[in-house]
Amino acid sequence: MEKNDKYTDEFIDRFLMEDLDDNEKSGFLRDLNNDELLQKRVSQFEHCRQMVNFAYDDINKKENPPKNISGHGQWKTLTAASLLLLIGVFSGWMLKSGLFSQHASSETWRVVLHINSNDTYLQNTLLDETQRLLETYRKNKQKLKVEIVAYGKGVSLVQLNKSPYIERINKLTKKNPNLAIVACGRSLKRIRENNTNFKIMPNISIAPSGIRQILKRQKQGWSYIRI
Amino acid sequence: MSLRLYRKKLLGAMTFRKKTLIAEIAKHRPRLYKLCFSWTHNYYLSEDLAQETITQAINKISSLKDPKALPYWLSQILSNKFRNFIKLSRDTDSIDDIILSEQVTPETLYHQDQLRIKIRQAIASLPVGQRMAITLADLEGHSYIEISEILGTPIGTVMSRLSRARKRLAALLHDEAGQTTANLYTQVFNGKK
Description:
heterodimer; A: 227 residues; alpha/beta; 8 helices; elongated
């Protein structure tokens, strides 16, 4: 609030929200006509209001989240490349910091990854890199726990009779008991409202909320890698 | 009228009132989702929190004394849910200090409207407390007293958050061409509201 101004910010807000009585309004309009600084303040407030409204006026009008637009296949490559880079950097950092010692360490490393896309290219990349991570740590006799959290359209990764990765995931989880896959309960509920036949693999855990699961893991000190 | 019949009619009236309120609560879902999105900029989290708000409101419907206060009551529940979510991720920071980083996702980046993106990024860079205050005021049209009660903060804090948020947005949206984004907005849309 500016000092020595007759009108507070709250008063200007009330004017713009048409929350003034007739006397207050007529007095304010009279002053507004003669005061350029007051006009500027009112204009700035109104611009701010319009901008904030404009920023979100498409919410609820379009599909949320929006579908992928064709011609943006470049994003698949970019996000997959980012994932490769992140896992590479993470593993490289581990190597450099001497954590991959010749002797097995008692410390367990924990990594949570998430997938929220039904793009098979991204899902395939996620599984490739998870496998590589598990193999690297096993070779170096390091203890590792990996959790994949699937939410939104990402739950299609574990959809029975639909996902192309069922057999691969079964082999991966059988060979690596330190790998867990968690599906978001909320996402499943939403999907099942439109598709009652949507079923997931039997050995998949379900968390009430995928996002909260990721937050919980981060709070527990897990490293988080995002696609 | 016998006492038994009176009780039956009263119960019927209360059940009808409850059913009507529940139907009204469900209608607020898009509004709650939009408000939550303006705080989180995350589609899935906004859906989760909006759904939790609706569920809690339905479960605690008997605590709503005045049906006219329903929109404000729902905003209050949503605000509490969101602040609890923030606490879950950051134990000790005050929401005046927390800046949630903008989630640059493919969905955001292929949005065609650059002006909208720019404004959202500016809003996303505000500390959480300021972001909640400015969206409750400008998006929802709540008064300062209502914002104070929704956020559970003194009215003076609401005023200072709003003032700082507006100044920061004005500074952030002043582009290199020397004209404000607000001016660009006005030029593009000819002052359309």
